[in-house]
Amino acid sequence: MYLKSIEIHGFKSFANKIVFQFHNGITGIVGPNGSGKSNVADAVRWVLGEQRIKQLRGASMQDVIFSGTETRKPLSYAYVAITLDNSDHQLAIDYDEVTVARRIYRSGESEYLINGTPCRLKDVNELFYDTGIGKEGYSIIGQGQIDKILSGKPEERRELFDEAAGIVKFKRRKAAAQTKLENEKQNLVRVNDILSELEKQVGPLEKQSEVAKVYLRKKEELKTLDINVFLLENKKLREQLSSMEEKYNLASNELNETSEKYEGIKEEYERIQQEIESLDVAIEAAREQLTDTGLMRGKLEGEINVLKEQINSAHGSENHLNNRKAALEEEIAGKEKEKQDILTDKKDTDTQVQEIAEAAAMAKADLEAIQN
Ligand code: ATP
């Protein structure tokens, strides 16, 4: 098992995403003071679950997020992922390659991922037990820590050796088992206390037990009686049920017939309703026609009155004209008589003219004869 790569994005001085690829052999990261070498080790410590911000040289956990420079805005999250080759399956997981990632946002939200699947910090810790990897492991040794290991107390060194020997898992299990054992001991003491308390109650309990036995016997009898009552009631209810079922069937048939009738009546009702509606329409039309006819009648009556008036006035004119006619006829008769008189006068005159003409002709002839 070896570290294949570290991906860092937004963690401390690494604003841009950077991937460190490691191959078999030794890889060194070189640079001037303050250029960010320790930040790489911090990133590894952080992704393995470091919770103590002092170990990461910051004041709060959000300090690990890239805080910006004069030319670059701060980022909103930090992300680190380490990928380990697990083809020898030293890590108790079914993958040949394991990627452990951690992400934190400025809002405080954070998450751990193993091969892209969200998980708990506990899962990350358990994955690396006894592998030497882990925030307490000997695989990350910071500046000045060699000194501390060599000059430190034996019990501080012990942890490192335990990890190297691969017994941390067992020590932790032992500690958990001891805690459990202690709890069980406490429980046992409590059980013993309860037992001695109960022993004191045995005498009264025996009496109570006798009473309880009687109670149980009576209860059994009651149960038998209850069962008998239940069976009787059950039989009665069954009979009632079958008669009810018959009644129900009858009622159901009646209901079906009534429903059919109801449907028929409903259809008839709807048909009549439609008829009523069309009659209403016809009545309305007739009413309108009646109104129109009334208006027409009024108009015609007016016209008749006017005509009557005209007839009356015509009658008046007729009388006047008749009188006039009679007067004119009288006048005509007078004139006729006058005409006859004139004609008679004319005839006389004509006769006289004739006689005069004849006398003139004779005189003329006499004249001519004389002249000749
Ligand atoms: P030395 O060898 O002296 O310890 P180094 O190369 O290990 O130096 P680091 O201490 O890893 O350098 O990096 C420090 C640099 O990281 C500083 O320039 C600091 O400004 C920068 N830095 C730390 N945290 C942040 C952050 N949150 N945002 C931006 N830059 C940061």
Structure description:
- With 372 residues, the chain is an alpha+beta fold.
- The longest helix is centred in the last third of the chain and has 170 residues, at 202-371.
- Among the domains are: 2-165, Rossmann fold; 167-200.
- It is built from 6 helices and 6 strands.
- The chain starts with a strand and ends with a helix.
- The chain is 65% helix and 10% strand.
- The protein has a 6-stranded antiparallel sheet.
- The protein has helices at 37-47, 121-128, 145-151, 154-165, 168-200, 202-371; strands spanning 2-9, 18-21, 77-85, 97-105, 110-114, 117-119.
- The model has no long low-confidence stretch (mean pLDDT 90).
- It is elongated, with a radius of gyration of 70 Å.
- Residues 12-13, 31, 33-39, 63, 65-67 line the site of adenosine-5'-triphosphate.
- Adenosine-5'-triphosphate (ATP) is lined by residues 12-13, 31, 33-39, 63, 65-67.
Summary of the model, kept short:
This protein is α+β, with helices and mostly antiparallel strands and 372 residues long. 65% of the residues lie in helices and 10% in strands. Among the domains are: 2-165, Rossmann fold; 167-200.
